[in-house]
Design a protein that fits this description.
Helix content is 36%, strand content 0%. The chain has 5 helices and no strands.
C-alpha cells in the first residue's frame, strides 16, 4: 500500500499535466494579436466629384502622418502665446540660417573658461549639505 500511493499520485499528476498541453483551453496561442490592430478613419464621400485623384502612396489629407498624429495627441494644437512670451521671442530676434554650420566650424573662436567653470557645471545637483572641498595638489 505504501508503494502504491506514490505511483497513483505520479500518474494523476502526469495526467493533469498532459491535459494542460492538449489543444484548446487557456494556453492556446492560435488567435489574432489584439495589439496589431490599427484604427482607420472612416470613408468619406467628397461633396465635389471633380477632384483630382490623390497620388499613389501619399497620406490622406484628413489623417496626416503618424508623427503628426502623435504630436497632436501629446501636445495639442498650436496655443496662443502670452504677451511676455511673444515679447521675449521678438527681442531675441531670428538666428542666421547658417548658425549650426558656424557653431560647428573648427575656425569658430571659443573662450576657454578654465577648470573651475567645468567643475561647477559638472557638480552634482543637491542642496550642498554633503559638499566637500577638494584642494588640488
Amino acid at each position: 500500500m505504501r508503494k502504491l500511493a506514490p505511483v497513483i499520485l505520479l500518474a494523476g499528476a502526469s495526467a493533469m499535466l498532459a491535459a494542460c498541453g492538449a489543444g484548446g483551453g487557456v494556453f492556446n496561442r492560435d488567435r489574432p494579436d489584439e495589439f496589431a490592430v490599427q484604427r482607420q478613419a472612416p470613408l468619406v464621400v467628397p461633396p465635389d466629384f471633380t477632384l483630382t485623384p490623390p497620388a499613389p502612396g501619399a497620406p490622406r489629407p484628413a489623417e496626416g502622418t503618424a508623427a503628426d498624429q502623435a504630436l497632436e495627441a501629446l501636445f495639442g494644437g498650436p496655443a496662443p502665446r502670452s504677451r511676455i512670451e511673444a515679447s521675449v521671442i521678438d527681442r531675441a530676434g531670428s538666428a542666421a540660417p547658417s548658425i549650426r554650420s558656424t557653431v560647428g566650424d573648427t575656425a569658430t573662436n571659443t573662450v576657454a573658461k578654465g577648470r573651475v567653470t567645468r567643475d561647477i557645471i559638472a557638480a552634482p545637483e543637491g542642496d550642498g549639505q554633503s559638499a566637500a572641498t577638494v584642494i588640488p595638489s
